Amino acid sequence: xxxxxxxxxxxxxxxxxxxxxxxxxxxxxxxxxxxxxxxxxxxxxxxxxxxxxxxxxxxxxxxxxxxxxxxxxxxxxxxxxxxxxxx
Length: 87
Known about the structure:
Blueprint: H1 4-7, E1 8-11, H2 15-24, E2 26-31, H3 37-48, E3 52-59, E4 65-71, H4 77-84
Antiparallel strand pairs: 1-2, 2-4, 3-4
């Protein structure tokens, strides 16, 4: 079984991703290129002890894979972003 940080490489830090944290309760991660939505969901739930509602994945032009993770309203993305040093 993979470890959490084998799937989630690092948080994506841009103005857009910070805005998503604040407005839509979403976190953005650069993930392993072979990772699936279900693996990303498992890694976020296991690594941060939160409930994930939805995962969207985007392959960008630089060859990276971004995962947009929407958290349950009971969980606050700002708290996790602060723990990760995003804010």
